């Protein structure tokens, strides 16, 4: 498939809260059309850098939101691959793709060349641990002529390679970025904004990169602070200390002027995972009883205060093609009476809504006849026990398309016998067969159909109960234009965002 449509850049900026007087004054300069460039943007971010801005871990998405990094491709509104650093591509045989690069310059002033791109991708394949986008995939990247790069998967065909390369963890950096440790994106990336100063985990300053291939950004720079407290981020918008604040708690939405509140659907779903390997939920009839006990509309109206949609499946409304292709689950067990079956329900408090969701679900399960013990911890102190099956039920929020944009990825990782994030500990031959079939399916529409058939197999086991499809809530000054509320949670501000 050859891609030649123009690229609509969705580079990101991120939010930064601040205190009065903490942000720089507006920058000068003029835009390409002769008008003045916008001021520096003051943004409040929810999560600080956890790995010194390494693009291979959790900080990869942070970098893409800030508009610092880019990959060969991006994801469009329908979840398909669209041009980014690569302006076109086509497939050569089962395992090889050839990408044509656009003319571009790194932040350090060097040209983006096929050899530089090949080196960046090769470095990513050797990272320990491997970036999530490369889980189970081995590839080689070789320069091909002045503007071409040929990428080959070495073990098996990869029908979604262009989507995989959109992952923030596969961002392209200049050769100068790679030293002895993790690559350093400061001064070596490609996006419309360049990091110029980092103050520990508290703040970062970015300037507009004037040689960005997509044209100079309207904002002259970004002053970003990392503020974990959602109430503080909301207060900063309300008092005018920041222009944009991301990830506001739903409880804070009512405190903001409606004109400063923006929302959009995300591909993040909150679900109840039931332990199929040990405890009461080994019995599919008790899993069916738990599913029937849960009223998702109560969660949406009460806990999420309307800023979510009732759980329909593993993919929600922000996955625009999912509803029309959804397959009804079959073969579900009949629900049995719980008769006081004792279960432990766990969740984490990093996302403020989850403990509230868990309390409501606890009440609903108890009303149905279960005896429920609730356990809430910080996520890092919970994950290993959850994956080891030490809880009977687990409530978590998962972005179904974050890593690669491929709908099959979350199915393989979360619900197959060998899945690395299988919180339900599900091992079902019919599920594995359906997911394997979907993973081998080529063609965007055909792969989506196969993914929905696999989703139906998974839901038919009652190992997972989708609860709610969450929405992004951001605070945005009425003076700001062009904020991007990306359903994949990879971007926030692009080159056109301004105030």
Secondary-structure blueprint:
Layout: E1 41-45, H1 59-65, E2 73-75, E3 81-83, E4 86-92, E5 96-101, H2 114-125, E6 139-144, E7 148-153, H3 161-164, E8 193-199, E9 203-208, E10 221-226, H4 230-238, E11 244-245, H5 250-253, E12 261-274, H6 284-293, H7 296-302, E13 308-310, H8 322-325, E14 342-348, H9 353-368, E15 371-377, H10 383-387, E16 393-399, H11 407-415, H12 429-439, H13 444-460, E17 464-476, E18 481-483, E19 493-498
Parallel strand pairs: 1-10, 1-11, 14-15, 14-16
Antiparallel strand pairs: 2-3, 4-5, 5-7, 6-7, 8-9, 9-10, 11-17, 12-16, 12-17, 13-17, 18-19
Helix pairs in contact: 11-12, 11-13, 12-13
Description:
Helix 12 runs antiparallel to helix 13 (444-460). Strand 8 and strand 9 form a beta hairpin. The chain is α+β, with helices and mostly antiparallel strands and 499 residues long. The strands form four sheets. Strands 1, 8, 9, 10, 11, 12, 13, 14, 15, 16 and 17 form an eleven-stranded mixed beta sheet that branches. A four-stranded antiparallel beta sheet has the order 4-5-7-6. The longest helix is centred in the last third of the chain and has 17 residues, at 444-460. Mean pLDDT is 90; it is low at 1-36. It has helices at residues 59-65, 114-125, 161-164, 230-238, 250-253, 284-293, 296-302, 322-325, 353-368, 383-387, 407-415, 429-439, 444-460, and strands at residues 41-45, 73-75, 81-83, 86-92, 96-101, 139-144, 148-153, 193-199, 203-208, 221-226, 244-245, 261-274, 308-310, 342-348, 371-377, 393-399, 464-476, 481-483, 493-498.
